[in-house]
Amino acid sequence: MEYSFIQSIFSGELISNLQCLNCKKITKTVEQFSALSLELPEIKKQGFFKQFLNNQKQSITLKECLDYFYEPVIDSLTLCSCGTRSGKRQYSFQQQSNLLCIHLQRFQNKNQKDKKHVSFPIKDHNFQEYFNLENEQNYRLFGIVVHLHDLGGDHFETILKYKNSQFLSIKDEIIQIVSQNYVEECEALLLFYEKVDNQIDQFKASLRKNLQNQHKMIVNQELQLKDEELCYLPHFWYEQFLYLAKPPQIITSHLICPHNLLKPDYWDFRIEYENAKSVQQNSQLDSNTSFTTIGEVQNPNSPVNMEESSAQKQLQLTSIIIPKAVCEFLIEKYGGGPIIEKNIKTCSACTENAQQMSRRRKLERQLIIKYENLQGYDRIFVIHEEWLKKWQTYLYNSKSILQKNNLFGYPPPGEITNYLLLDKDQQIIQQKKEGQQFLMITAPIWHILQEIYGGGPSISINPHQQQYEPFKLQMDDQLLTKELKTLYQNCINQYKCEIQQ
Ligand SMILES: [Zn+2]
Ligand SMILES: [Zn+2]
User: Fold this and answer.
1) Is residue 303 located within the same domain as residue 213?
2) 84 CA distance to ligand 1 centroid (A)?
3) What spacing in Å lies between the alpha carbon of 18 and ligand 1's midpoint?
4) DSSP secondary structure letters along 303-354
5) How far is the CA of 400 from the centre of ligand 2 (A)?
């Protein structure tokens, strides 16, 4: 799973209980949330006199919004196994987040903002009743986003907790200290709470201090340990450990490759790639026919082995160095891992694989371009649109996906899935339409794709029974297609490794 910093501090879990109104079956599902979005209930009708007393302000409480959120709603979309689409859905909390973001839905009605006042706890507050918890759980307000309804568009004000229970209001360039009364009266759109320890945890407090000291001593070289006694601790975790009530797991697995080494990043791969290209150019090979170079073993004196890799530099920028023994203890206590030792090497095999895949993709793209607009062939072959899309994303990986800790890019598309377009009589299912569920391609392209990826079957639509010359690839391209097919198999195996991790 991809790791997200925001997710790790803002996410909590809800349990949705859906009871079918027909067969009464209850389906439980866990839903992740990173912000709790609450509808604002109507203000309860009051007697004339009470209404008169309260008339100064139309107000509801945050607790009322949450109670409204827990009320069961009718779900007429989800299909039950008994065939009914009518159930009663109700939410409860499974896990609270370290930082709780509450969104008050003031724009349910697009044309009109719901301006009713919602009162919310400002000082440390026990949310036990708010979340129907078994134990006490305190939260502290630390920020508010207010939507200001100026003429001519949206405008926002941020209110932040400041020292000595004061608050700061930030409106563009105007920053000022505001009273608690000001905060109470504001028309909040987003509320930010942080979880606070119910009692001061002596053990955690001393652990924090200890870790801070050790880190400082290593930085100042007062504590000198050998490289093999040191390891990296992700900075994001360190910060959360120092400031949040419940630090998450120490997630490092996304940094390690299937060979248990440091995963190279996009830039390591890029350097290798440029290097290899210049070697190729020096030997005067035509890139169109140089498929034999794909399998070439990399130069053992590659920069990845010689100096610090980009992945290593990144690791240094985003981690602190602590003694390995301390890290082992922290991982045992908070979960996660594995340990990343200070002298970890960047994996050159992974760089080579990524590079090979990239070259393979390039050769396939060149082959397609060569035959795409070949004269004398019309688009009479059907191809499943969904498969073609997967193939496209696989073949044309964007730079951003490669940079995002995903050196191998999008996964391969698998066998051609044209059979999904056919009914049991091998005819195209009536509802499947050209331009929607399938597209048309020429014989050369169909030939190449089926040769490389397999699957099928071959479906052609030729209403005027036009005659075409039988298509055959040029000899060297036939070899190239075979090579691409073999390399494709290697590529699939790489993905299997990556996924098993
Ligand atoms: Zn049912
Ligand atoms: Zn590796």
Assistant:
1) yes
2) 6
3) 10
4) HHHHS--HHHHHHHHHEEEEEHHHHHHHHHHH-EE--EETTPPBPHHHHHHH
5) 21
